[in-house]
Amino acid sequence: MQNILKSYYFYNDIEKVERFGSGHINRTFLVTTKKEKFIVQQINTNVFKNPIAVMENIEIVTDYIREVACEDDCDPERAALEIVSTLEGKTYVTWDDTFWRCYKYVVGARTYEIIEHPDMFYEVGKAVGVFQRQLNNFPIEKLHITIPDFHNTPVRFQKFKEVAKRDPYHRGLDAFNEVKFVFDREKGMSKIVDLIESNEIPIRVTHNDTKLNNVMIDEISHKAICFIDLDTVMPGSVLYDFGDAIRVGASTAVEDEVDLNKVSLDLELFAAFTKGFLEKTHDILTSKEIENLVEGARIITLECGMRFLTDYLENDVYFKIKYPTHNLVRARTQFKLVREIEKNYNKLEKIVNDILDELKS
Ligand code: ADP
Ligand code: GN1
Ligand code: MG
């Protein structure tokens, strides 16, 4: 770690280094100096096989947001994540086989694991919409595909099926109900991929990981400042960005809640987010995209649960865990939410349509 930190101009001013955040992928440290704070991260190269491509994507997207796309309601100082270059002027630093980077800490803001008030989620909805708006004219061909088929749900299902059949760690019996839950929903899993392939919905620049703890929220105003964790910015479908934010933010419990009675989908939160999101995007999205927002939430929640379950069956090689059944617990909460979305499907679609009618009137 010393060797990494020595690559940065603030090395001699460092007062404290501590582990930080609750992301499932990277190793994150908060570095406090006399004057400023920084986030120093070891990129997970098991997940990101080409970290240089990841950094190139982040650099061009954040530069674009700051320089081209920051509208009047956006503070250019905090509009986008800011990479801190090394003394040699590089966006990353390597040591042995490890790969590191540094960001400025977004001042006066923090992340949340659970929404505390509908107004807060309305602001997050606006932030997902603003992100989409800001990158609407971004030259998408400049982006690297850093994880192929990241949100290709049928491809994820094939992987799940193969692992479930092989059951290499004999965990399948403990997860019998969850494995069945996924198999029962094979039909319909390819809806978004099919819409993309038939050109019925467009490919856009998307974040692909819009869960709540990837958005910085102002500590005083509770407005959403900017998205962080831009590792998965890639060409994709806006349906996943909408859906992934709903998956976490409209849930009444945290992603790894053990007591499933506490896990449900809060329709008021869904409405608050959707209102903010559509206010910013209704004029740029196609009607086919808007028609499929609820399906986007259902599919991404199912996909995420299936990914947790696959990882459980594979003995936890992808997501960080705190105890042996952590991934199984996470899969269960996701499947409870899928059931909730299925149960309330018509109500959710009505919420979307009512908001749209209001915006158009
Ligand atoms: P992971 O890919 O592991 O989720 P993240 O980039 O999301 O990694 O970082 C983990 C956590 O660290 C975030 O949820 C957030 O709380 C915090 N964090 C990351 N970057 C910043 C930043 N620039 N400013 C403030 N906090 C940050
Ligand atoms: C991971 O990195 P983090 O914790 O923000 C994962 C997402 C999942 C999410 C589930 C690169 O996000 O795809 O939806 O966990 N990121 C990657 O909480 O796989
Ligand atoms: Mg994260």
Description:
The chain has 361 residues and is an alpha+beta fold. It folds into 2 domains: 2-107, Phosphorylase Kinase, domain 1 (2-Layer Sandwich); 118-360, Aminoglycoside 3'-phosphotransferase, Chain: A, domain 2 (Alpha-Beta Complex), CATH 3.90.1200. 43% of the residues lie in helices and 12% in strands. The strands form 3 sheets. It has a 5-stranded antiparallel β-sheet. A 3-stranded antiparallel β-sheet has the order 6-8-9. Helix 3 packs antiparallel against helix 7 (238-249) and helix 8 (267-281) runs parallel beside helix 12. The longest helix has 21 residues, at 293-313. The protein is globular, with a radius of gyration of 20 Å. Residues 20-21, 23-26, 28, 39, 81, 103, 105-106, 111, 213-214, 228-229, 231 line the site of adenosine-5'-diphosphate (ADP).
Report a brief summary of the structure.
The protein has helices at about 1-5, 50-70, 120-135, 155-165, 175-185, 190-195, 240-250, 265-280, 285-290, 295-315, 325-345, 345-360, and strands at about 15-20, 25-35, 35-40, 95, 100-105, 110, 205, 215-220, 225, 235. By secondary structure, the chain is of the alpha+beta class.
